[in-house]
Write a structure and sequence with these properties.
Strand content: 25-35%
Distance between the termini: 51 Å
Order of helices and strands: HHHEHEHEEHEHEEEEHEE
Number of strands: 11
Radius of gyration: 18 Å
Helix content: 25-40%
Structural class: alpha/beta
Strand order of the largest sheet: 3-2-1-4-5-11-10
Oligomer: single chain
Amino acid sequence: MTTRLQLETDNFLHTNPALYEAFNGEHDQSMAHFIHKLLAHYRPGSRVLDIGSGLGREVAFLREAGYDAVGLDNSEAMLTWARDRYPGVPFHYGEQADFSLGQSFDALYCVGSTFLYNFTNEAIQASLHCFKNHLREGGLLYLDMRNAAFFLTREGQRWLTEELAEQRIFEGRPVSLRTRFSLNLPAQLLLRDYCWSVAEDVPITEHLQHRLLFPQELAQHLHTAGFRLLQLFDQPAPHTHADAAAGDLSFTDALTGRRLQVIAQAV
């Protein structure tokens, strides 16, 4: 049966979980393995909250590993997909800057640049305070996002001048994606212009944004919200390094990589 794609949407992938899975690796568990590795290293406890849980793979993986993991997302399509795939696993609807589960967790993570949908400093603080309110004292926070400093490198500059293209076969149909990046410097936003082509259908264009956060700026936000910074690093990066979950944890902070990652503790 051919999946009927939802075309009228403000975020094409997030409204079409099956296509999201096709473009992000149906069997890709690299992020789940990396989160598990971080939790095994820091040992914060078993109660874990996933902000922006999406397809639900990380939550399901951690529950299989013995954690009491819970997911939260603001996409009804993603929540429906996750609940259907993993019946009995708790997935809640909520916005990262304004949710209340009435529970306290030992660890909370927000990966895949979900945190960068906080476009303003006020929204960043609101989300961090909401995260802290759901962590016990000493609880662990892990953030994974685009690295603003990457766009100061030669490779990052190339991303701003060239069109990026990729293609997948989705249910027997070719789906191509063309991407152009640009910057809104005063607002410190990465502008993401996407053009989707699904077989012979009319191309779908969308214009999305990510807030760009520089390392010291993010460290200050965390401090203001009541977190103690433990690690600020770009390697290992589970999205871009297949072996990120292998071997011992060894963080590097050159911060020239595509991903900026943070480990902090609620104080």
